Amino acid sequence: MPLATMTSVLREAQKGRYAVPAFNVCTNEHIDCVFDVSLKLRTPVIIAIHPVEIAFFGMKEITRVIQSRAETHPYPVVMHLDHGDSYDTAVQCMVHGFTSVMFDGSTLPLEENIAHTREIVKAARAAGVSVEAELGLVGGTEGDAYAHTDGFSDDQLTDPETAVEFIKQTGADSLAVAIGTAHGFYQGEPRIDVDRLMEIRKRVEVPLVLHGGSGISDTMIQTVIQEGICKINISSEFKRAYHQGLTDAMEGHPDVWDPIILYPEAKQHAKQLLKEKFELFGSVNQA
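^ thats the sequence. predicted structure below, dont judge the formating
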């Protein structure tokens, strides 16, 4: 089926009180895992691609692979730009068939974040593409081994009243909120501000997104979904699961060098992680 927009997928999740995972991919094997598990579990899915991952795989190459797989896939699949850093990046992704783009202006002054996001929303409307925005600081850096858990000051987290004005002025379709999560793996237990999330949810109607989902406890994941999160990003856990599967396969077959033998075992390990996330998020049989 044609690729779905983020808005169509998240509105259903919002009504059904479940979350759709966004899995970051940068290899054919990652893509295979996501499609295979989505098919088996009858679940919508968001395939997220960071600019670093686009550069690694190639824009034309990665979009063609995903679009080709989606053509015969019976359930909704969103091809989403994760943490886009500019208007040009967003437009380039729209041209290549992305159905959702994120603009991350969280490090900019508020007025600049609003202005840039609004500009991208205008272009996306003309292209029929959804836009995710970010307000507040989600810690860590893409590619880091660990994300900090030292806590955030109030001015680094998403202010509920500011969120209202931000959505009003930008027209963004979904909002990534800063409530204490960070990218990468946590050292210690992250401090998630659920009360802040509840206040944002009371004031903002668009679907809410949680970045830095890798390593958060199952109990906390269930809590934030109950309080309004309907998209959760998983990158580090997914890639680590694949890597662990490949490591185990190589150690178990020390004389084997053929990817035809090794890669399927790595993929099975990663698929188990994806299955657990789909089940935890409540999206199984929601397609």
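Residues 1 and 237 are 28 Å apart (CA to CA).
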